[in-house]
Amino acid sequence: MRIAVCVKHxxxxxxxxxxxxxxxxxxxxxxxxxxxxxxxxxxGLRLKAAHQGEVVxxxxxxxxxxxxxxxxxxMGADKGVLVTADTTSIDTMRTASLLAAAIKKAGPFDVxxxxxxxxxxxxxxxxxxxGEMLGAAFTGYARKLEVNGQTARVERxxxxxxxVVEAPLPVVASVxxxxxxxxxxxxxxxxxxxxKPLEELxxxxxxxxxxxxxxxxxxxxxxxxxxxxxxxxxxxxEAAAKLVEALIxxxxxxx
Length: 255
Ligand SMILES: Cc1cc2nc3c(=O)[nH]c(=O)nc-3n(C[C@H](O)[C@H](O)[C@H](O)COP(=O)(O)OP(=O)(O)OC[C@H]3O[C@@H](n4cnc5c(N)ncnc54)[C@H](O)[C@@H]3O)c2cc1C
Prior knowledge:
Blueprint lengths: L1 E5 L2 E3 L19 E3 L3 H15 L2 E8 L4 H10 L3 E6 L7 H15 L4 E5 L10 H9 L2 E12 L2 E7 L4 E7 L2 E5 L11 H7 L4 E5 H4 L29 H14 L6
Parallel strand pairs: 1-4, 1-6, 4-5, 5-11, 6-10, 7-10
Antiparallel strand pairs: 2-3, 7-8, 8-9
Helix pairs in contact: 2-5, 3-4
Bound molecules: flavin-adenine dinucleotide (FAD).
């Protein structure tokens, strides 16, 4: 079985600082593997263990994305394909189209895995676009994925319900974090990852820009929420009583 896993080199949101105007300070921000993409890699490795074959990592991003790709290779993936592009100036459609072009070039693949959304911009748009561009069935929010013969059976975690769907291969699936517990590579695996094949393709040569119309992000800022800063003083009993009164006044609690 050939398994493609799309892994994003995302801005590390836990380290991101915000300026006084609410704008993220992106220059110099550190990047790392998008959180849930570790689950996608893990699921690819589990499919490989069950069916044999190979796991290929695909990333669209700048050259320093290799750091993230090496982490996926250390986890156990066989090789990587990096499509170089400036992800701060391309939209989800261009990202998906570059991934689709690289996957077609290295294909065919039976299963293409993504995560439900990236940990920095979390649009959740790339995986379904990829399904469409590859002409494959798409199943989003997979919390369980099994392949029997030429059919994928996917348990989908929806907000209030679980849905079980079946789709013929090839299939594109986005996974949720409940699907598995990603493994930690050992030191030896980390050292060996540097020797695994990592192909680099130039995004503009792979697919000239302009194949799709492009949306541009014109501003990016944190949501502002007004706070009332109510200070409650007194002994614990008095403060608790005042807090309950205040919450009733605000309509948070009812009498
Ligand atoms: C600093 C910064 C500036 C940006 N500026 C712009 C801009 O000017 N214009 C604009 O349109 N967009 C901009 N973006 C958004 C950027 O282009 C998106 O990150 C990209 O289009 C993918 O969207 P997403 O991360 O929301 O993907 P999602 O759809 O949330 O990702 C879901 C899954 O798809 C896969 N995937 C997504 N992206 C990749 C990737 N690059 N490589 C491999 N797999 C991937 C992964 O499996 C991921 O878990 C900016 C982002 C950042 C961080």
